[in-house]
Amino acid sequence: NAGVTQTPKFQVLKTGQSMTLQCAQDMNHEYMSWYRQDPGMGLRLIHYSVGAGITDQGEVPNGYNVSRSTTEDFPLRLLSAAPSQTSVYFCASSYSNRNEKLFFGSGTQLSVL
Amino acid sequence: AQTVTQSQPEMSVQEAETVTLSCTYDTSENNYYLFWYKQPPSRQMILVIRQEAYKQQNATENRFSVNFQKAAKSFSLKISDSQLGDTAMYFCALMDSNYQLIWGAGTKLIIKP
């Protein structure tokens, strides 16, 4: 079972560049979400989706876009990378939006220079 | 605003000892869920234990148990017979009525041989 797969694991960008963080799950989960993890802080929700074709903003959505064209995939796009977006990014999914148990990917460590 | 506070940035204990991680939270809601997640050096978050606020009985999962004090808004995690594999960051999280998770900043737990 692959679970939640995130790619890449590491990425270095220059300020102003754009990129897409990939997230895929093979558990037929309806709910998917993106978090960022910064030192000394808890996870913060960026965007989430309760099903294909439905997305919504979380706590810190600025500078990020998402789409959910299939149940399996939930990519996160950085439109114009900024040093403030240096962080570890996690994708997570669950059976429903009730978040009774989240399944996490292994994270993407992103550095923006 | 709902908040989750973990007052212990780092703790260390000897293998086989018992350790308790603290978590306090603030919410005006009566029904909610509380979680403890573990993040080992591999970075992938894993659910350790969950507690439903309307249940008075403390949740247990093998060596892991919680002390849930609803009136005091306290949700501590006790790890008995600690093992080297318990070394990790531990995050406390509160699920609100919108089914979004509010995370604490985490406690780094080191189990010494």
Provide a compact summary of the structure.
Chain A is built from no helices and 11 strands. By secondary structure, chain A is an all-beta fold.
Secondary-structure topology with pairs:
The complex is a heterodimer of chains A (113) and B (113).
Chain A: E1 4-7, E2 10-13, E3 19-25, E4 31-37, E5 44-51, E6 54-57, E7 64-66, E8 76-78, E9 87-94, E10 103-104, E11 108-112
Parallel strand pairs in A: 2-11
Antiparallel strand pairs in A: 1-3, 3-8, 4-5, 4-9, 5-6, 7-8, 9-10, 9-11
Chain B: E1 3-5, E2 10-14, E3 19-21, E4 24-26, E5 33-39, E6 46-52, E7 60-61, E8 64-69, E9 74-79, E10 88-95, E11 101-103, E12 107-112
Parallel strand pairs in B: 2-12
Antiparallel strand pairs in B: 1-4, 3-9, 5-6, 5-10, 7-8, 8-9, 10-11, 10-12
Structural features, described:
The complex is a heterodimer of chains A (113) and B (113). In chain A, the strands form 2 sheets. In chain A, strands 2, 4, 5, 6, 9, 10 and 11 form a 7-stranded mixed beta sheet that branches. In chain A, strands 1-3-8-7 form a 4-stranded antiparallel beta sheet, with no helix packed on it. By secondary structure, chain A is mostly beta strands. Chain A has no helices and 11 strands. In chain A, strand 5 (44-51) and strand 6 (54-57) form a beta hairpin. The model of chain A has no long low-confidence stretch (mean pLDDT 94). Chain B has 113 residues and is an all-beta fold. In chain B, the strands form 3 sheets. In chain B, strands 2, 5, 6, 10, 11 and 12 form a 6-stranded mixed beta sheet that branches. A 4-stranded antiparallel beta sheet of chain B has the order 3-9-8-7, with no helix packed on it. The radius of gyration of chain B is 14 Å and the shape is globular. The mean pLDDT of chain B is 94. Chains A and B meet through strand 5 and strand 9 of A and strand 6, strand 10 and strand 11 of B.
